[in-house]
Amino acid sequence: MKKNFIIILFIALTLSAPAFAKQQIPQKADHIEYINLEWWKKYNDEDLTNNLLKLYENNYDLKNAALKVKENEQAVKMQFANELPSLGLSGELYRNMRSSMQQFGSMQIPSYAQYNYYLPITLNYEIDIWGTNRLRTKSMKQRLEIIKQAERATYIALTSDFAADYFNLIRTDEFIKIQDELIKTQEEIVSKVSDKYNIGLCSINELLAEKRLLTTLQEEKNRHIKTRDTLINSLRVYLSESAGDITRNNYENLTLLKNLPQEYSTEIIENRPDYLQEEANIKRIGFDVRVAKREFLPKFILFGQIGLNAYHLDTLFNSASQMFNAGILPSIDLFAGGRKVALLRLRKFEYEEALNSYQKTILTGIKDMNTGLIAYKEALQNYDESLNRLKLQNQTYSLMQDKQNIGSASDLEVLYSKEAYLMVKKDEVSNKMNSLISTINLYKAAGGVDLYKINENI
Q: If DSSP codes are grouped into helix, strand and coil, which group holds residue 79?
């Protein structure tokens, strides 16, 4: 009997000891599927996809988003632990020193001193009759779902913003290239006009006007260089790099995304992280409301102790020193100052607020999709118009060159025609890039879903 008791005590001590399991902390983001590389490959830009993979490996915001999910996973486990019994050891060793003042009737206890060895293992367990702790765990799981959707939203926002800045950088590169041609052409115009002025064929005002235009073009180039450098620095932050150039494609090699669906069902907003977050939030607060209602009900605590209690060390493991007690402790608050009523009302107000946010999120999602569609259609139309205008201007430039070859047009007229062509070329570049970026904004509004397949998922 003594041996069996010691074995039971040892097993209980083993179960109550904390397990220090080594947790693997993620050193990088761990949801590459959130990047949706299959969608970005449709742009046929290997540099873009490689940069996005580098962003996935190095970006600190993605790492922190992954850590927040891990943190909340542990919070769920902590809450789940409340559904389980708690077992603990709280031993005591002390020396009693009693005076002779203790008396029982005519019998007086003399002064004495003795040790007390007390080794109890205590069990506490709240019997979850009403399912309160289970509801709290469900609430924490919904909170975890909110954090997971926040992580997914971080992926969508970062990859979309990176891609937009990436294409803007290519746009700026092309602008600088065109601007160099414009400046070179304007310098030739200034030289030609200066020759005309020197021989008295034009006024000083014409020469000054051309020189002013040259300085304007140079200032515009400086602005483009500033924009390029700013974008490079911004992209370095995305990639968690402090130096180095950004590998990027050439403007001529960019591919437009065409034939995207022009109409979508409003159900596509169900792909958006903010919609899923609000949906999880409603469920979470719904569980909290039910918990607040159950606070009015009585609680039942199962408690018990098993252990050893002796006054002498050599008798610690004797059968007489073995102790055991158990029982159920019911409890209910008869008066709490209105705290529970206030808590219930608070949760109900939060639930109504969550419903309003949910409805607003639906409207915001529809608005973002409609705005994205309008911008995409306009960008495509503008690009088509700028292409036609560029073709017409190119024809005008070619005709002027032909006239120059037969002596019907001057060098200056050809330069003016070339300058006009380059101005229209800038519009064509801008509209093409706007079209690409509009598809990114539409992708972001749809919740990071492949736009070509989105109607298949409804």
A: helix
The per-residue pLDDT for range 112-147, each reduced to its tens digit, is: 778 888 888 888 888 889 999 999 999 999 999 999
Q: Global pTM?
A: 0.84
Q: May I ask the CATH class of domain 1-19+85-99+108-127+299-331?
A: mainly beta
229 alpha-carbon distance from chain centroid: 26
Q: Is 237 exposed, middle or buried (0-12, 13-18, 19+ CB in 10 A)?
A: middle
Query: Is 274 within 8 Å of 153 (Cβ atoms)?
Result: yes
Q: Which residues, including other chains, have CB under 8 Å from residue 51's CB and lie 6 or more apart?
A: 162, 166, 235, 239, 246, 247
Start and end residues for every CATH 1.20.1600.10 domain found in the chain: 44-83+128-297+332-457
Other Cβ atoms closer than 10 A to 80: 15
| Topology, domain 44-83+128-297+332-457 | Outer membrane efflux proteins (OEP) (1.20.1600)
Q: For residue 131, what is the DSSP state?
A: -
Least confident of 158-162, 239-243, 381-385, 436-440: 239-243
**Which secondary structure element, helix H or strand E, spans residue 117, and what is its range?**
strand 112-126
Instruction: Please list the residues that pair with 118 across neighbouring strands.
Output: 92, 309
What is the C-alpha separation between 421 and 219, in angstroms, rounded? 20
Count how many Cα atoms sit within 13 Å of the Cα of residue 414 in the half-sphere of its side chain. 16
The model's pLDDT over 292-340, given as tens digits with 9 standing for 90+, comes to 999 999 999 988 888 888 877 777 778 778 888 888 988 888 888 899 9
Alpha-helical segments (H) within 102-253? 132-198, 204-238
Residue 145 · residue 280 · CB < 8 Å? yes
